[in-house]
Every structure is written in C-alpha cells, then in structure tokens.
Amino acid sequence: MSVAKPHVSDTLKIETSAARRGCSNSALLRIRILRAVPGKDPVVKSGASRKGRLTLTLACEPGTYYATATDYRGRPVKSRAVRLTCTPGSGTPTPSPTPTSSPTSPAPSPSSPTPGPTTSAPSGGGGSVGTAEENEVVRLVNEERAKGGCSALAHDPQLRTAAFGHSADMAAKGYFSHTSQDGRSFMDRIRAAGFTGGSGWAENIAKGQRTPAQVMQSWMNSSGHRANIMNCKYNLIGVGVAKDSSGTLYWTQDFAAR
At 164, is the secondary structure helix, strand, or coil? Predict the structure, then answer.
C-alpha cells in the first residue's frame, strides 16, 4: 500500500491519492489528509473506497500537510509532510491534467515510440535523446520559451526516461494521472530514473492529441501547464510519448533546474 504526498493543482486544490498494490481481494482503503500544527494534527479531509485506489481533494489553505492511508487490516502508511503555499505547483509542481477531448482535425498517428538512446543532447533540443516526435515537442517548447526571453531547455536522458516511462505506464494500464497506479509521484519517477540534485521540478501530461503541435497548443492554452513551460528557472526537460492499444497517445513532459 502507498500514499502520495499532498500537492496543489492549478485549480488550487490540495490533492493526494493512495493505492493497494498486489491485492486480489476487495477491501476498504481509507485516506486522511492532516495538517501539521502545534499539538495534535487535525484531519482536514478523509475518505474511503473498496476499489483499491482513492484520490482526495480539498480547497487549499496555506500550511504543512501530509497524508495517511490504512487498509482493512489497519496497517497505516504515511507520506512525507510538505509545505503548500496554495499556488499552482506548490509541494509537487504538477498542474491538473490537460483536457482529453480529441482534436478537431486529427492528423495521422505517429508510430508507437520506443525508449531512445540515453546520451546527452544539445540545449536546443533534438539530438540523440528521444524519438522524432519527442524532440519536436522539445523544439516547440524552446520556440515558445525564446518568445518569453527564457533560455532553451536541454533534452535530458534521465528526465526523458522518467517521462516516457510514465506515458507508457498510463497507456498500458489505461489511466491518466500524475500519480502512478502504484502511488509514485513524478518526483519518485524522476529519482528512479537516476536524476540527482536539482532545485526545482514540474510535470505536464496530456492525452489524445495526435501531433507535437496539437499537444503543445493544449498545454500553452492551460495556465498551469504554460507556467511550467515558460518557467525560466528550468534548464532541462524530458519528453515521452506512448500509444495505447486503441492508438491514443499519452504525452509527458518533466522539467528540472540543475
């Protein structure tokens, strides 16, 4: 069983989720969000489900929060505490998912990508990291950043591994969330890919757009996602795209400053 630490979406909601892993039986899963204060920490939101996975949201108030999850046997797990400032991306900078409606003028789907080489790429994007579609997203990101006076992002092999892994996982398991079905956050995935150090991170995801241009338009039309793309403190990016069995594309961008 796992529980994700709370974070703030671009709709200014505190969000966390928990999941029971490797369990074939149906059982009650309960989540509580607590606020850290002097004395006994109050429970500010709780919920329960028998579906093996549950997400809770509540209106944000600045403070330090953590989450606990308990299954029917009473075995608790606890997330790390995180200070939230009630700005998009506070805690773990992951804005809410982009709209998943199909584009009005669909283009032919690109072929299903496979993980690319893990050598370094130049700061302008492209190079030997990722697929052609992924590198086109990097190019378009850097084109937009140049308009806003931000430096170009380098396509980092480890961030690309994390991004592609999440897109492939969503495509294979049929879900759409910044939190993996095993409860991992995007920071967990970035660290698991071998990325160390850094002073800032963010993630954008999207589903259903059929070309790099269409997914970039969706992100740039969303304030939270656009804020990540246009954040001048970031200097690295990883882009991953994967296709499910029906041909739907799942897109992930991971950003970092190092």
Answer: helix
Mean pLDDT of the 76-95 span: 65
Are residues 190 and 254 in contact, defined by beta-carbon separation less than 8 angstroms?
yes
Quote the distance between the C-alpha of residue 184 and its chain's center.
10
Angstrom CA distances, 101 to 92, 143, 177, stand at: 26, 25, 15
Cα–Cα distance measured from residue 135 to residue 37, given in angstroms and rounded to the nearest whole number: 46
Distances, alpha carbon 242 to alpha carbons 33, 110, 160, 167, 224, in Å: 33, 10, 12, 5, 23
Residue 91 has pLDDT above 90, yes or no: no
Nearest-angstrom CA–CA distance, 115 and 241: 10
Taking the model in full, what pTM does it have?
0.56
- pLDDT higher at 102 or 226: 226
DSSP state of 120: -
What does the pLDDT look like over 14-70, one tens digit per residue? 888 888 766 656 677 888 999 888 888 899 998 888 777 888 888 888 888 899 988
Query: How large is the average pLDDT for residues 215-228?
Result: 92
Helix, strand, coil % (nearest 5) of the chain?
20, 30, 50
Q: φ, ψ for residue 240 (rounded to 5)?
A: -135, 135
Please tell me the distance from the alpha carbon of residue 100 to that of residue 169, in angstroms, as a whole number: 17
CA-nearest of 181, 147, 146 to 166 is 181
Per the document, the length of the chain is 258
pLDDT of residue 39: 81
Q: What are phi and psi of 235, to 5 degrees?
A: -130, 0
